[in-house]
Write a structure and sequence with these properties.
Structural class: alpha/beta
Helix content: 25-40%
Oligomer: single chain
Number of helices: 5
Radius of gyration: 16 Å
Strand order of the largest sheet: 1-2-5
Strand content: 5-15%
Number of strands: 5
Order of helices and strands: EHEEEHHHEH
Length: about 200
Amino acid sequence: MQNQAIFPLFYLPPVSYFTHLKENDFEFQLEKFEHLPKQTYRNRATIASPNGSLDLVVPVVKGSKVHTAYKDVKISYDEKWQRLHWLSLQTCYRSSAYFEFYEDGLAPFYEKKYEYLFDYNYEILSWLFKQLKFSATLDVTENYHANVTRDFRNGMSKKEVPLVQTKPYFQVFSDRNEFIPNLSIVDLLFNQGPQAKNYF
């Protein structure tokens, strides 16, 4: 356990997340028992829009003053965020080469209501692994370990500049925006399709 890499579970993770997974030979566990940090990719993703990068945020139910374990954090449906996210993905990527290739597989995540954020993100990550043809098993932690040799839980935050060197690839709106590194993995999928797995 101590040598196993521990990764946070993100919503539509950034490209660098998968680069780190590959660097660890896909030997990892997903953290389930941490307290949910604010302003991270655990409930947000960044995509390309005509005006540059655009954040999509999954709202969570406001908890009590006691810290809530990630596995117990509930998704809020007070606002129609699923419709907004799906419309944003359609609007931003409809003209990309492979959006229609993945559309039917991704759409159900914006129709079904999941109670818990962890479960929602886990199902999306499972789907992404299938699209990228990664055969790794998605193991989760059984309790919280403070001291881990390869700990990625506090890295890869929204504010952190990615340490991974990203190779430019064609993006939608490249005619008006410079290449935007480390967007959500769906940006790479929609633009590169089945070739996306060779990017890492």
